[in-house]
Amino acid sequence: MSVSPKINTNKLTADDLIYGYMNGIFPMADTDGTLYWYSPDPRAIIPIDTYKPPKSLRPVLNKKTFEVRINTDFEGVMRNCAAARKGDDETWISEEIIEAYCELHHMGLAYSVETYIENRLVGGLYGVSIGAAFFGESMFYKVPDGSKVAFHYLMEILKNQGFELLDTQFINDNVRRFGAIEIPRGEYVKALKKSLERRCLFTENALEHLFKV
């Protein structure tokens, strides 16, 4: 894995994030707040075209237990993702990272997919959309299946809008259950370059078509 510390002493900005994602790197904070840029080899991705919801999730989707929204509370999703890791004091989502991604969100390049029960945020995920690539960052849940449903609708949106690449950075059991695979860094860079040549829209009304079908 390629790891390097943040070079400049200025705060992380949305422009830093854009440059990083377009060049196959992303930041994570250490426990002391120091930012490092990562470029894993191999890299984890989830093939979009072959995604199918786990059989265990289908009854949940049919019951429509959750209301699904986009960008209703982007910062809230980020803070919940950070809080989910504070139990072991190893959160990589620092205040600096939250501020930079919220800036990117206001520029229209970072999105959250959220699940609600009775108007209460109970799950969700966030990531970055550039070209035909979506870079998944983190997810959380407060009730069972809250994040799984959000992820399912993320995948449906990506398929519907013609996205080509879903980057999940590292492989783990959480992303593996959604079909994540590992590919060499060189192969990832080629796929990234290709996806950046096209433009796909991750719009806030992307859910409308899905719920009409």
State the main characteristics.
213 residues, alpha+beta, Aminopeptidase, seven-stranded mixed β-sheet, three-stranded antiparallel β-sheet, 8 helices, cytoplasm, Acyl_CoA_acyltransferase, Leucyl/phenylalanyl-tRNA--protein transferase, leucyl-tRNA--protein transferase activity
Task: Give a concise summary.
By secondary structure, this protein is an alpha+beta fold. The protein has eight helices and ten strands.
Verbal overview:
- There is one protein chain.
- By secondary structure, the protein is of the alpha+beta class.
- 35% of the residues lie in helices and 26% in strands.
- Strands 5-6-7-8-9-4-10 form a seven-stranded mixed sheet, with helices on both faces. Strands 1-3-2 form a three-stranded antiparallel sheet.
- Helix 1 packs across helix 4 (95-106).
- The longest helix is centred in the C-terminal third of the chain and has 16 residues, at 146-161.
- The radius of gyration is 16 Å and the shape is globular.
Mean pLDDT: 89
Q: Give the overall silhouette.
A: globular
C-alpha Rg (nearest Å): 16 Å
Number of strands: 10
CATH topology: Aminopeptidase
Largest sheet strand order: 5-6-7-8-9-4-10
Question: What fraction, in percent, of the residue positions are helical?
Answer: 25-40%
Strand content: 25-35%
- Helical segment tally? 8
Largest β-sheet summary: 7 strands, mixed
Specify the structural class. alpha+beta
Number of domains: 1
Write the SSE topology.
Blueprint: E1 2-5, H1 14-22, E2 26-29, E3 35-39, E4 43-45, H2 58-63, E5 67-70, H3 74-83, H4 95-106, E6 110-117, E7 120-130, E8 133-141, H5 146-161, E9 165-169, H6 173-176, E10 181-183, H7 185-195, H8 206-212
Parallel strand pairs: 8-9
Antiparallel strand pairs: 1-3, 2-3, 4-9, 4-10, 5-6, 6-7, 7-8
